[in-house]
């Protein structure tokens, strides 16, 4: 209850502070980005290298569970749930407008709005939603899954999966409380910001379809509708509710991408993506370490965007780790890690390849001045303008809106489910959190997100995500250390020794005794 009360207070502060909080939040983000960007970049590099080693080494063969345990979900169901839960509707929106923001700034030494910069802008979003981002979930998923299914530890909170924090001492109890608070704080900051960013876009689409004025009252009505939809999903629980939404989400997303790919400049989009993949490989090390160049034009936009996204992905890490762990019993650590990269990273990169490529094509060809709309009216208006260029405009608006609703329902339902599990007491391993607990957290999510909508602006989303993600850098470091400590002691899978070639014994010729035949003596 103290955690619930805290976030009610924070939500009310956003509602009362309104747009006056923008300056404060932006200053907080700028300070963290300027002084501590090396921490964001450093933890992602360490995490990426560490779990690549785990996946490729003999540790990757460790199964989460007993030797005869089988996965509860098919590969497609598992991948759908992982993908749908992690990304929400943000990918449908930001994949259209991020490249338009990027192309206005000099990237990797190219001039703003130049032909090369269009290609750089197309690639940058794929890095920020690519393998390094998705690998961050492994820091929580692997250790939680191992402790739950191999050590049979009842993991109610993230701190339960860290052996180094267990014990009756006052210091360890305090550390567990701090870790658990930061986890809930991060989830609220990340998921709440996502919903707060997505509702205005959906409101704009509804206004275009119905002619209703796009006001705060329309957004409030949408929150009420979403709350009812989420409640129906939460009552169904993990199986039957979230997994069905996830499957519907994947097929809707694939259908929407296919339509844009085939009605747009298909050949141009494919060629652009091939070029972007080459650029991604070329600049991967520089982007990972922050050693990019802005040609002397002030702060490096590549680093600042990456730091923002790294903070956002960190806020998702605790709840995604527990969610992935809960659905991964019977899978090996290697399957979990590469499954996340396959379904997650490649899926997100596909959105930026197609939707981002289409937006840039419209801008570069002069068909629509999307950058002017983005800079003067905001990203909701720019997204609506992109959708208006597709055939069957109103049908596409409906398909896009439905896709966003399914994304939102999946992510917020799963988030409330996980947070309610973290904050439940005396929950048995096979028991789900109570419906009342889940509904309380659903309401907190909605109230917090509405506060963000009330403050307004994408900078507000960026600031809250960066602030919420910062303390989770240290939580991630503890998870990595804990993972190494438990895996090196595991004896279920041992590293295969090098084959020993048996030395052949030297054959000593046998000297037979000479037998004298006495008859011939």
Topology:
Layout: H1 2-17, H2 21-56, H3 75-87, H4 90-102, H5 115-128, H6 131-135, H7 138-149, H8 170-210, H9 216-236, H10 238-263, H11 266-289, H12 301-326, H13 333-365, H14 370-377, H15 379-388, H16 393-422, H17 435-455, H18 458-469, H19 472-487
Helix pairs in contact: 1-17, 2-12, 2-13, 2-18, 2-19, 3-10, 3-12, 3-13, 3-16, 4-5, 4-13, 5-11, 5-13, 7-12, 7-19, 8-12, 8-15, 8-16, 8-17, 8-18, 9-10, 9-16, 9-17, 10-16, 11-13, 12-16, 12-18, 14-15, 16-17
Short overview:
With 521 residues, the chain is an all-alpha fold. It contains 19 helices and no strands. It has one domain: Amino acid/polyamine transporter I (Up-down Bundle), CATH 1.20.1740.
Q: Note the main sheet.
A: none
What is the name of the CATH architecture?
Up-down Bundle
**What is the class in the CATH system?**
Mainly Alpha
Which descriptor suits the 3D outline? globular
Please, how many helices?
19
From the structure provided, what is the oligomeric state, counting identical versus distinct chains?
Answer: single chain
Unreliable residue stretches: 294-298, 504-521
Estimate the helix proportion, in percent: over 70%
One letter per element, helices H and strands E, the order comes to HHHHHHHHHHHHHHHHHHH
Distance between the termini: 113 Å
User: Radius of gyration in whole Å, from Cα?
Assistant: 27 Å
What is the CATH superfamily classification? Answer: Amino acid/polyamine transporter I
CATH fold-level topology: Amino acid/polyamine transporter I
Which range does the strand content fall in? under 5%
Mean pLDDT across all amino acids: 82
Structure summary, number of beta strands: 0
Tally of domains: 1
Structural class: mainly alpha
């Amino acid at each position: 209850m103290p955690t619930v009360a805290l976030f009610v207070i924070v939500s009310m502060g956003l509602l009362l502070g309104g747009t006056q909080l923008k300056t404060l939040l932006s200053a907080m983000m700028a300070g963290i980005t300027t002084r501590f960007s090396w921490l964001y970049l450093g933890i992602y590099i360490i995490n990426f290298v560490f779990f690549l080693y785990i996946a490729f080494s003999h540790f990757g063969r460790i199964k989460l569970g007993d030797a005869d345990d089988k996965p509860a979900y098919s590969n497609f169901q598992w991948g759908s749930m992982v993908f749908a839960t992690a990304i929400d509707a943000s990918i449908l929106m930001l994949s259209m407008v991020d490249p338009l923001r990027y192309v206005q700034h000099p990237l990797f030494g190219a001039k703003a709005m130049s032909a090369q910069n269009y290609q750089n802008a197309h690639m940058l979003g794929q890095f920020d939603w690519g393998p390094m981002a998705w690998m961050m979930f492994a820091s929580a998923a692997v250790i939680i899954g191992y402790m739950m299914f191999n050590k049979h530890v009842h993991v109610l909170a993230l701190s339960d999966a860290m052996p180094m924090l267990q014990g009756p001492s006052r210091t360890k109890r305090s550390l567990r409380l701090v870790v658990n608070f930061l986890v809930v704080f991060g989830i609220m900051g990340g998921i709440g910001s996502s919903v707060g960013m997505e509702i205005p876009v959906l409101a704009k689409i509804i206004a275009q379809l119905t002619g209703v004025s796009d006001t705060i009252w329309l957004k409030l009505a949408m929150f009420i509708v979403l709350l009812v939809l989420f409640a129906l999903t939460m009552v169904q629980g993990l199986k039957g509710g979230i997994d069905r939404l996830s499957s519907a989400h994947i097929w809707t997303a694939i259908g929407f991408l296919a339509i844009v790919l085939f009605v747009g400049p298909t050949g141009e989009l494919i060629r652009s993506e091939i070029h972007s993949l080459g650029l991604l490989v070329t600049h991967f090390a520089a982007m990972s370490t922050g050693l990019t160049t802005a040609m002397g034009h002030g702060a490096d936009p590549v680093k600042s965007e990456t730091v923002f996204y790294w903070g956002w992905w960190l806020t998702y890490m605790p709840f995604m780790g527990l969610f992935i762990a809960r659905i991964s019993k019977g899978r090996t650590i290697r399957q979990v890690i590469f499954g996340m990269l396959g379904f997650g990273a490649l899926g997100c990169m596909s959105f930026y390849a197609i939707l981002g490529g289409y937006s840039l094509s419209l801008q570069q060809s002069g068909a629509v001045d999307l950058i002017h709309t983005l800079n003067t009216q905001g990203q909701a208006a720019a997204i609506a303008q992109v959708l208006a260029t597709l055939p069957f405009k109103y049908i596409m608006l409906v398909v896009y809106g439905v896709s966003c609703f399914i994304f939102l329902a999946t992510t917020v339902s799963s988030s409330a489910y996980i947070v309610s599990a973290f904050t439940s007491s005396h929950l048995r391993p096979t028991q789900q959190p109570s419906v009342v607990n889940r509904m309380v957290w659903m309401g907190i999510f909605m109230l917090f997100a509405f506060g963000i909508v009330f403050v307004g602006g994408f900078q507000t989303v960026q600031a809250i995500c960066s602030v919420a993600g910062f303390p989770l850098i240290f939580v991630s470091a503890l998870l990595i250390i804990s993972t190494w400590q438990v895996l090196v002691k595991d004896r279920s899978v041992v590293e295969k020794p090098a084959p020993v070639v048996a030395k052949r014994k030297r054959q000593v010729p046998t000297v037979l005794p000479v037998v004298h035949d006495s008859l011939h003596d």
